[in-house]
């Protein structure tokens, strides 16, 4: 069932973005008695099919179980999870995969999304093979390399002059006018069902951490991690939730106080007004977590550090390490803590003139 | 133990590239009684630690268990294995990972390699974190994007004017003069120990195929697949080897007859004189396999087909699909056959101006 996070309204599990009251929705299901009961034998994301709201079939390719890699960072045990190794190069594939499965289930064959970043790339990877035409609304000035990727994957591109907000408005207008489904991952409850599997995997690979640091813009990963660990607690696998640290980009904070200087590097989380803000606040309070804002100088240093250790990630992924350094300086995290840091996006897309 | 494929000479399991007779070496060990006995609980390549010649420790990050994705191609069941989702963007990480583990075991801290492609990128990803300085000899005219990747990963670049052969000679000279270890993956027996795990995974994910189509230049993947399936047979998991199809690039054939027109697209297998040629010939004969050569027009068509199905691969990866189409036209493969096609390298590196 879908449940409204604002008024508690309930809806059947169909594809739907909002409650009639305007609130955002989450999938709510009874969890199995234990994780091991729910696991399948698959060696990919289908391992968690028993915990996903899918009733028949799934799209291809199936996202990976991504490796974790442990490093000592300033006296903490930092567990990096390599989400950038998913088929489209970002963690978003987990959410897109569940979403596309749901769209196929409902016979939806044409959808609309506004993005020229990882969300668009992820949708383009899964949609066409599933028989879905993806209309992607992109800024006319987006990088030619990114647009070429989207085109080669078979997406239909619509170019919009203007800022990010103009692109969004044109996409929504187009969807309404043409009667097509708008698949905002910011709102879509099935997207979070996919991202929650990061928590399941990390738990199986390295147990429950004391802290989880997630790049947080729209909150699709942050809330997925909260939901995944919450479900592990419901199943009796863990008895406490890790503290969630929302890592935000300078100038685009929604949970921390807003800085005046805008980050240019952390483009994946440059989202000032996320529609799921209230849900994120609740997750922070429930886990006694906190918000940390980071700017480009420290993101740049963190990015260099990660590449030198073999993690070819994009700048947004480096925000979590920058935040960890910042927290260690201010005694926000105890030495000896165990931390989970998802590395969200591939840096191969960010190399010029390769 | 290391065994020479030419004279049968035996050596202890140290890092070594050739037999005293000049022949190439393979690791030979007794296989466990069954695959399930040997498997570990890890959800990454360490799953197969029990079948690898490692005695202590391993480098980080650990390569993934890559997903497989099944498609009907001209009446066959084509199982694509997404090796391009490894940490450095290619299957080579499997071989590099075992190699670097071995180098660390032996206390080797400085190595030399000539490549500006996937092998170099893979070595750069694993070496620095393992405490190894990688001297990479690269053509002075290699793409600035690729060189920037290698630099950011912490490799030491040596630029050489001249053709690929000049680069190779300078690397060998430098290694000899400075007493450093030259780590040619073409010769290195530990590299094949890593690539053999593709066979183990594919077998666990989708059983034994009738045919395996592998891009084949130096033969490190081809021979790894042969060795992996051979070990599965030794363990009694399978009773026959799949037929191995060596897919080669037009103008660079070593197993098929040499074409006059040279492929520009299949740069990953543009290797005219692989040192393991005799071993490859034996694997072809033993499995009743064959060689297929493909050229750029069909590689281009196959690449387009793969991208439209969500596989963001580089052109060399598309050779296997081009070969499958060619074999279906000439009745070289029966309809209804089950085929394994590893997709070897990421296409994100090949996008201009992203």
Automatic annotation (TrEMBL), chains A, B:
The keyword Lyase applies. GO terms for molecular function: L-serine ammonia-lyase activity; threonine deaminase activity. It comes from the Archaea. One of its GO terms (biological process) is isoleucine biosynthetic process. CDD domains: Thr-synth_1. The keyword Lyase applies. InterPro entries: Ser/Thr_Dehydratase, TrpB-like_PALP, TrpB-like_PALP_sf. Keywords: Lyase, Pyridoxal phosphate. Residues 75-345 form the Tryptophan synthase beta chain-like PALP domain. Gene3D superfamilies: 3.40.50.1100. Its cofactor is pyridoxal 5'-phosphate. NCBIfam families: PRK08329.1. This is Threonine synthase. It comes from Thermococcus barossii.
């Amino acid at each position: 069932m879908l449940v409204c996070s604002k008024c508690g309204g309930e809806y059947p599990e169909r594809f739907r973005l909002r409650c009639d009251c305007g609130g955002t929705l989450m999938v709510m299901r009874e969890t199995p008695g234990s994780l091991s009961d729910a696991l399948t034998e698959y060696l990919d994301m289908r391992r968690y099919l028993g915990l996903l709201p899918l009733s028949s079939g799934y799209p291809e390719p199936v996202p990976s179980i991504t490796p974790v890699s442990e490093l000592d960072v300033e006296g903490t045990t930092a567990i990096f999870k390599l989400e950038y190794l998913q088929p489209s190069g970002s963690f978003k594939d987990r959410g897109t995969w569940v979403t596309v499965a749901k769209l196929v289930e409902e016979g939806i064959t044409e959808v609309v999304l506004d993005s020229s970043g990882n969300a668009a790339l992820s949708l383009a990877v899964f949609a066409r093979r599933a028989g879905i035409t993806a209309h992607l609304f992109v800024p006319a000035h987006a990088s030619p390399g990114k647009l070429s990727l989207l085109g080669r994957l078979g997406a239909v591109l619509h170019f919009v002059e203007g800022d990010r907000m103009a692109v969004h408005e044109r996409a929504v207008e187009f969807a309404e006018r043409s009667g097509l489904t708008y698949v905002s991952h910011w709102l879509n409850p099935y997207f979070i069902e996919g991202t929650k599997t990061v928590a399941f995997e990390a738990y199986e690979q390295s147990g429950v951490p004391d802290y989880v640091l997630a790049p947080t813009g729209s909150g699709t990963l942050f809330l997925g991690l909260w939901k995944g660990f919450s479900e592990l607690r419901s199943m009796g696998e863990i008895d406490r939730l890790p503290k969630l640290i929302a890592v935000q980009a300078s100038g685009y904070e929604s949970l921390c106080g807003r800085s005046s200087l805008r980050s240019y590097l952390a483009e994946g989380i440059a989202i000032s007004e996320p529609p799921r803000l209230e849900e994120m606040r609740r997750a922070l309070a429930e886990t006694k977590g906190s918000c940390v804002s980071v700017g480009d100088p420290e993101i740049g240093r963190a990015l260099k550090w990660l590449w030198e250790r073999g993690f070819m990630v994009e700048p947004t992924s480096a925000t979590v390490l920058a935040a960890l350094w910042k927290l260690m300086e201010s005694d926000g995290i105890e030495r000896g803590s165990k931390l989970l840091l998802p590395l969200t996006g591939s840096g191969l897309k960010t190399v010029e003139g390769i």
